[in-house]
Amino acid sequence: MSTELPVPASITPHRQPLLHGLLATVAERRKERIRGDLSETHFDGFEELFRFLDAASQRFAQHPLLNKVAALVQRLRADFETGLCAFLSGLDQATFDSMRDVMEIEYLLREFLHEPASVDPWLDATDEDRWRKFGPGQLRRRHAARLGISTDELLDTYEYRAHSATLHVSPHGMFPVERGVSKSPYPQLGAAFALADILHHARDIVFLIYKLAEGSSPSLKLDHDPATMPKLQSAFELSMRRYHNAWMLVDIAGAVAEHRRASSPIGADEMPPRESAPESTATSAPGTEPKEGAS
Q: What letter would DSSP give residue 66?
């Protein structure tokens, strides 16, 4: 199978130089990421994920209670499709935005796991009431109260803030995530973070869907137990190793730049300080700990 995505012949660098350059960059990112960032381990992991979500969607649709939330599983499938295809095109911001949607669906499913009676009020509410009662902020506060902790102590707090910070308009960039097609001279940094983000959310949501099915009906068996999905787990572990290696390279490069700045003959005070990654991004390695409410 060819990994090339050629620019259409009708688009020429002479007549449409900007459009041609954009599509050429997309083609280059796709080639890089299929050949350099994805492996057979990843391909097998995604195949296992999509099969699980398809099977869960079908089983939920046939269940008298879970059929009411089957559309959420279908939306998850679409989010992971979006995340993967955006990743392949170098649209790392779009990948992170789709995973933010996954997080908010996860909050809803977690709420339904602990409070099954809340499914009908969620379905029947007006849009305004649904947001007021079942928005991500309310769901996170209720879950924190359930655990007897503050929302700041929830394990996913920094990550959700990071996803929100990259989504909402700000005068600041969010290193290493670029808006638009990645044009970084080191695109593998954004790639490592985006791929790790997809796969750690995939692992978490599979486990939650399984627990929701099990809690709703012990006789309802999904095709795969999360414990018997080794391909998805292997893809997750490989991506996390690359994620941590990428951050190590960032830290080394930053330390070298800091050393050069401090030892420069023009004086440290006259050189610009090192830019560091936002705390919410740098301190929250995705998938390093299980989510609350998973059990």
A: G
Kindly tell me the burial class for residue 99, based on how many C-beta atoms sit within 10 Å of its own C-beta (0-12, 13-18, 19 or more): buried
Closest by CA position to 215, among listed 111, 290, 76, 87: 111
**Separation CA 30–CA 228 (nearest Å):** 31
Which one, of 201, 227, 224, 210, lies nearest residue 291 by Cα?
Answer: 201
* 32 neighbors 55 (Cβ within 8 angstroms): no
Residues with Cβ within 8 Å of residue 224, at least 6 apart in sequence: 48, 51, 52, 55, 206
- Residues with Cβ within 8 Å of residue 27, at least 6 apart in sequence: 4, 5, 6, 7
Asked if 167 and 280 count as a contact pair (C-beta separation under 8 A), the reply is: no
Count the neighbouring beta carbons within 10 Å of the beta carbon of residue 125: 14
Longest dimension (CA), the chain: 74
Alpha-carbon distance of 1 to 271, in angstroms, equals 50
Report the amino acid identity of residue 8.
P
Are 198 and 185 a contacting pair, CB within 8 Å? no
**Predicted TM-score of the model (pTM):** 0.81
- What pLDDT sits at residue 253? 65
Under DSSP, the state recorded for 225 is -
- Check if the beta carbon of residue 48 is closer than 8 Å to that of residue 232: yes
- Cα–Cα distance measured from residue 56 to residue 69, given in angstroms and rounded to the nearest whole number: 11
pLDDT category at 168 given cuts 50, 70, 90 is confident
Within 10 angstroms of residue 118's Cβ, the number of other Cβ atoms is 16
Amino acid, res. 141? R
CB contact at 8 A, 68 and 74: no
